[in-house]
Amino acid sequence: MQIKIDDFDDLGNGLGKIDNKVCFVNKGLPNEVLDIEITKNTKSYINAKINKIIIPSKKRLKPICPFYDICGGCNFLHATKYLENEFKILKGKKFLGSIDKLYETAELNYRNKVIFHVKKGEIGFYKTNTNQLIKITYCYLLDDEINKILALFNKHVDNNFTGEILIRVNSLKETLVSITGNYQYTNILINSNLINNLVYNSKVLKGNNYFIEYLNDYKFKVSYLSFFQVNCKGLESIIDILNNFLKDKNINIALDLYSGTSVLGIIMARYVKKIISVEEVKVATLDALENKKLNKINNLEVINGKVEDYIDTFKNIDLVVVDPARRGLDKKTINYLKTIKSNYLIYIACKMDSLKRDLYDLKEIYDVTSINLVDMFPRTNHVESVCVLKLR
Ligand SMILES: C[S@@+](CC[C@H](N)C(=O)[O-])C[C@H]1O[C@@H](n2cnc3c(N)ncnc32)[C@H](O)[C@@H]1O
């Protein structure tokens, strides 16, 4: 069966019509004519996969990754970066109105963290929406130091090992590896100069269970279980947006909600009289307290707890920065953000659907003054949004 692809869907798949019914074609690109096989046919939509590309898009590429068709890790290697950017900007406009700018980052080898799943000695990622493990020997999204450590694991592994391998690398190329499961070759890892810090089933075998990340003039302690943005160039863009916003504002009290290791709180501290971070993961707040000391900050208060449990205790706030997980904000937090009437609200979101839903509520009393996209996850359909709102 043939189809002409007219557009992208919200996930970056091809969108066309068959007998007036909408059809989503996995990895189809706009303007292509494809021979397809239907994989699901419901009353309202059809899912399909490509059998043969009859007329390819001029922006189609041969994916560089041999695992691309089976691994769920990325989903834009079959298109030029230019087309991926077009998709991200168009999606931004469709969901959020207008977009000021897309801040680009390195296209490949940008990720500073990965978690590999391991089943009976096979190391890799799960195929999209399944728990079927795809063995991986190299990933183009990962920093090459991580790929070197993956190669080391693939050389020294046996089928008694089922578990997880977390690998992080900082901007000085220092590495941190944490293994859960029954792995036999820890001595090889301890003696390898590829690995600076090694944790095995929560026990430190080499170095520490954290490393220090260096960003501009700042230092951040990042424990192996703490959140840290996976793309440092993307984080630098968020920091640039915050610095530009704050440089001519007069802010007394600011909130840094969903704060992780308080990276954003520490950056903002020099512009405000007082700032309060709230983060639910204990180890991240302990890192945040260290980060205060490392950066000689004394106007930051760090609270360990859920935002929704503390939100109604804050008064006279001038600026709130929220950077929630993919599900976005809960109702209580949104309602309180409408009650406290902070002069400014900056919403950093990794999922546009949640941001769109929450902005709809917040727009009752806030006007959106700028929306920037940060390409935190190149070669995937994900993009970070940074949205500045001002009290009406
Ligand atoms: C996207 S990260 C942002 C972290 C930080 N702003 C940064 O850039 O490093 C979201 C953080 O929110 C935390 N979190 C998730 N739900 C939370 C909640 N209900 N209350 C407080 N923190 C929460 C997570 O543990 C995570 O550290």
In what range is the share of β-strand residues?
25-35%
Measure the end-to-end span.
Answer: 53 Å
Whole-angstrom Rg: 23 Å
Mind telling me the CATH class of the largest domain?
Answer: Alpha Beta
Rounded average pLDDT: 97
Helix content: 10-25%
CATH homologous superfamily placement of the largest domain: Vaccinia Virus protein VP39
**How many domains would you count in the coordinates?**
3
Number of helices: 9
Q: From the helix content, strand content and strand pairing, which structural class follows?
A: alpha/beta
The tally of strands reads 23
Largest sheet: 8 strands, mixed
Q: What sort of overall outline do the alpha carbons produce when their principal axes are compared? A: globular
CATH topology of the largest domain: Rossmann fold
The hetero molecules present are: S-adenosylmethionine
Order of strands, main sheet, comes to: 7-22-23-21-20-17-18-19
Low-confidence stretches: none
Using the 3D structure, state the CATH architecture of the largest domain. Answer: 3-Layer(aba) Sandwich
In short:
This protein is of the alpha/beta class. The chain has nine helices and 23 strands. Bound molecules: S-adenosylmethionine.
Descriptive key words:
392 residues, OB fold (Dihydrolipoamide Acetyltransferase, E2P), binds S-adenosylmethionine, Rossmann fold, 3 domains, 24% helix, globular, 9 helices, seven-stranded mixed sheet, alpha/beta, 23 strands
